[in-house]
Amino acid sequence: MTITYLEAIREAQSRALRDDPRVFIYGQDVGAFGGAFKATKNLAKESPGRVIDSPISEDAMVGMAVGAAIEGMRPIIEMQFADFSIVGFNQIVNQAATLFWRTNVPCPITVRLPFGGTEGGGPFHSQSIEAIYAHYPGLVVLTPATVEDAYSMLLEAVAIDDPVIFCEHKFLYYHLKAEKLPSEALPIGKARIAREGRDLTVVAYSAMVHEALEAATELATEGWEIEIVDLRSVKPLDTDTVMASVARTGRLLCVGEAWPWGGVTAEIIARVASEGFGLLDVPPQRLNAKDTPVPYHPNLWMAHRPTARAIASAARKILRR
Amino acid sequence: MLQTVLDAHPAGEATTKCDQTLAAFRFMLRARLLDDKFAALYRAGKIHGGVFLGRGQEALSASVGVSLKKTDIFAPLIRDAAGRLAFGETIVDAVRNYLGSPLGPMRGRDGNVHRGKPLEGYFPMISHLGAMISVVNGALFARRMKGISGTVGATCLGDGATSTGAFHEALNQAAVEKLPLVLVLADNQYAYSTPTSRQFVCEDLAEKAIGYGVASHRVDGTDLAACLETVGNAVAKARAGEGPQLVVAKLLRLCGHGEHDDSNYVDPKLKNSPLGRDCLKVAEELLFRQKWTDAATLATWRREITAEIEEAVAQVRREPAPDPYDEKWLAISSAHLNDVHDEDSGS
C-alpha cells in the first residue's frame, strides 16, 4: 500500500476531526465535493456538520476562523489556492497574527495553502508566498517536503495554539508517495538533513528539496558530496541546523521556488553571513524563481523555477571556486 | 440614585421602559463625560496618539449595549464608548487603555479605542473597517457548533465601512449561515472627511440588506427612545432565530474624525438639520417630559460621574507605565516556536 502527499493531508485532517471535537474545516468546495484537489474527500461524510462549504470570501473565511478560535474551536481553513489567500491577507496578518500579542488570547487556526508551481498553473495558481507570511510576526509558517511531514506537521499545526500557515505543495500532491504514515516525527521547528555530504550545503524546502536531491545524485557522479538541509518550517527557521551544516561544508547554496527579492533564501544567507561568516570558504549563493509572474507554458515554467539541472549548475560554480 | 428614581414609578411596562431609558441615558452621559475627559487629556498632551469620540452617537451605541446580554458577543467600533460601558466595560479600563497602562486590557500594546476582552465576548477592533463582522460571525458559528443557543453577536460600523469588501463578504456569510448577527450602522454622514455622496448612491443604506437577503431596520439615531426600540427589536429577532439584522441609524457625527480634526468640512446645513440634534439633549428632554428625572437629579449624576472619571484618571496616572525591559517581545503563545534570531546577541 502506498500513500500520496495529498492523501496524507486528507488522512491528517480525518484524524484531527476524529480526535478533537473542536476541529472543523471551512473552505470553498470542501464539503460533499471534497475540495478542488480532493484533500477533504469523504470528510464531510465522516464528520457531519464539521466540513463546511464557504462562499468565495477569503477575508470572511479567515475572520470567521478567528472568531471561532476565540470561542475555543480549532478551525482549519482551506484556501483553494495559496494565491487566493491574498484576498484574506488582512484577516491573516492583522487579525489572526496580532490577536495573542494584543489580548493574550491564543488564535489556534490553521490556514492550508495549496501552493507552488505545476505545469500549466500560470500566474494565479502557482505562487509561493511563504515569505510574505513569515515576514509578519505572530504566524508559524510550515513547508513540508515529504509525505510523512505533510501528515505529522499538519496534525501538529492543528494542535499548536497559534495561527499556522500550512504551505502544501501542489506539485508534490500526486508525485510523492510513501509506504505508510509515520508514527513519530521531528517536531516543528527542527530542520532535517535530507542527504549528508561534505562539499556543499544546499538549503531547500518543500518541492525544492526533491529538485536538490536529484541535483545531488547527478553531482555525486562527478565526485561531489552534497549535503541537503530540508527546512521543514520557514518560521521558525532552524538556523542552528543550517549553521552546523555550513560548518561542515564551508559552502552554502539556498534554493527557493519563491521570487528572489527578500524572502526565505535571503534570510538564511543574511543569518549565515552575519553569524557564521567565518564558516564560509566562498560567498554564499542563492537560487530562486525569476522575478516575473509564474508563466503558463511548461517550457517557460521550467525555466522560471529552479530545477535539478539549474541547482546542479549553480552548485558546480560554487564547488569550483 | 437610579433605584430611587425607579422605585417612585408604577409597576409594569411603563416602569420597564423608564428603567431601560434611564439606564441607557446614564451610559450615554458616562460616555459623553468620559469622552470629554479624553479630549481634554489630548489637548493637554497627556495621550499618546489619537482620541476618537462618539459625540452624537451615544443614543445608538448605548442602545446596542443595553440590548445585549453579558453572554452575547459585542464588537464595537471607534464611536462606541456608550455601548462599551453598557456592555460592562469599566471607566478605569477605558482610561488605562488610552494612557497605555500595562494593567489595561491591551497592556500598552494597543491603545485608545482598540480595546476588548475576547474571552468575555467583548472583541477588540482592528483598524481595518468591516474586519470585525466575520470575527463575530465565527464566534456565533462556534457557539452553534457547541450547541449553545440564544447568543446574539452585535457589531457597529459607520457608513464608510459599507464600501469595504470585508463588509460585503461578512454580511453575505452571516446570511448564508443564518447567524444571529446584528449589524448596527451609524450613517453619520462623513467617513473622516468624505461625505456619503462619495461613498454610495443608494437612497438609504438599509437598502443594502435586500441584496444580502437579510432584515433591515431604520431609525433616527438622535432619538434614544427610537434607538432602544429598534435595536432592541433587531436583537430580539436575531435571538429568536430570524437571521442577521441590519440596523441603519441616521445621525451626524458631532465631532471630528479624531480630536486632531476640526471637521470644518461638515456642511452647516446638516448641523442645523434634525440630523444635527445632540442625542444627549434629545434624551434629556424626553426624561424631563416623562418626568422620569429632573434637573437636580441630572446635575447630581453629572457630578458623580465626573468625580468617578477624575478618580479613575488620577488612579491610572499613578500606575506604572509599561517597561520595555519587562516586555516579552513574543508574538506567539507557543514560546518554543519563537523564531529566535537576535543579531545583537548572535544567537
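qc> The first helix of chain A runs from residue 5 to 19.
qc> done
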